[in-house]
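Justification of resources, computational component.

The compute hours requested in this renewal are based largely on the per-chain cost of generating structure records like the one below. Each record pairs the submitted sequence with a full structure-token output. That output is archived, and it is also reused by downstream analysis tasks.
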Amino acid sequence: MKEQLNIRVGLLRAVKLLAFFLLLLVFGIVSLARLVKADKTEITARQLLTGAALSGSAEGGSWLRGDYTDDQNAPVLTLNGDGPIDVEVGGGYTEPGYTATDAYGRDLSDRVTAEIFGDVLLYTVTDPLGNETTTSRDITYVDTTPPEITLVGGNEYHVPAGTDFEEPGYTAIDNSDGDVTANVRVSGEVEKYRLGSYTLTYTVSDSLGNENTVTRTVWRDAAPQPETVDPEFKAIYLTFDDGPGPYTEELLDLLDQYGVKVTFFVTAQDDDYLDLITEEDARGHTVAIHSYSHDYAIYSSEDTYFEDLYAMQDIIEEKTGHSTTLVRFPGGSSNTISANYCYGIMSTLVEDLDAMGYQYFDWNVTSGDAGETEDTAQIYYNVTSEIAYNGDYEPNIVLQHDIKGFSVAAVEDIIVWGLENGYQFLPLTSSSPTVHHGTNN
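The structure output for this chain reads:
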């Protein structure tokens, strides 16, 4: 019995030991399977990662077989073209091109970078595993770009007729030489009085001879003219040229007695009476420009005429505190003596004055005191008969000279006649009706 018991115990132990070894065997097999699976997963992920970088290559499928994972060969980088390339100073360049492949012929061109370092253009390509190739080309810097000109105020510029044109300014910058504004050459001319467009040309070169040219169009614009206001009653505009003179103050006192306002087209012929310009303005009369010198040589050119006009304007401003736009030409717009100095000057000047915002006045009633007569009674007759002839609503602009005593002596009778016949006496203004003779030169 004891022996049988021992046999049973031995068998039980053997079964337990066998079960233990079987358990160890199963555990080992499972662990090994897990290790193999993990290793395969790691390799596959790496293959997929690197293969995906070149999925567009002709040999893309080989990446999945793992034949790239141990590649330590640098890519092959080939540059198109021979010799150095030109790079514009301060600008870019035209890339001649390149190709990049790995040891298996896969295209890596889209992984190439290019960067300028001094006189070298450096190219670099790196494959997905970090293998890198670098090569370079030499650079030749060239300057074919001319300086850039910038016009202050733009390429089109507007100035009023009759004003001085002042260059608005410009700059010129070169990519090599820097600021070359001092080298700019300006050609062309802007006329002062004539309406229209004028072209100015700006040219500049850099030290290598690269040249640039731009143009500016300058427009001479007409000044606005006020609308004419015709009086709705019978009106007489007494005007007096060539003063002030020795009879002007007497005339002013007479006009005050009747409350009549007139127009004085003044000159600077007699310095002793220039202060009467202040008095004329202060008493409510219109002070207008006749001429500074009253020398017909002012018709030699536009410049000589306007130099004379501006000189008289300056005196008017000094004496009255304001300027005027009212003008009467010496000899009137129809004078022919101007042809002795410059052919066609009057036709030009009437256009200039209009463009510059002035209003010029001739006359349609003449007293005859400019050489036809020195008789006061005849002066009276000439004025009153011509006014009557013009009709009730014609603007009656009367020409007299306050430097002639016999003409001034007729003024009171003219005023009395006018008032008795229903006329009102008015000074000229910028909106008064004008009388123009028409030019003969």
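Residues 1-9, 35-66 have pLDDT under 50 and may be disordered. Residues 235-425 form a domain with the TIM Barrel fold (CATH 3.20.20.370).
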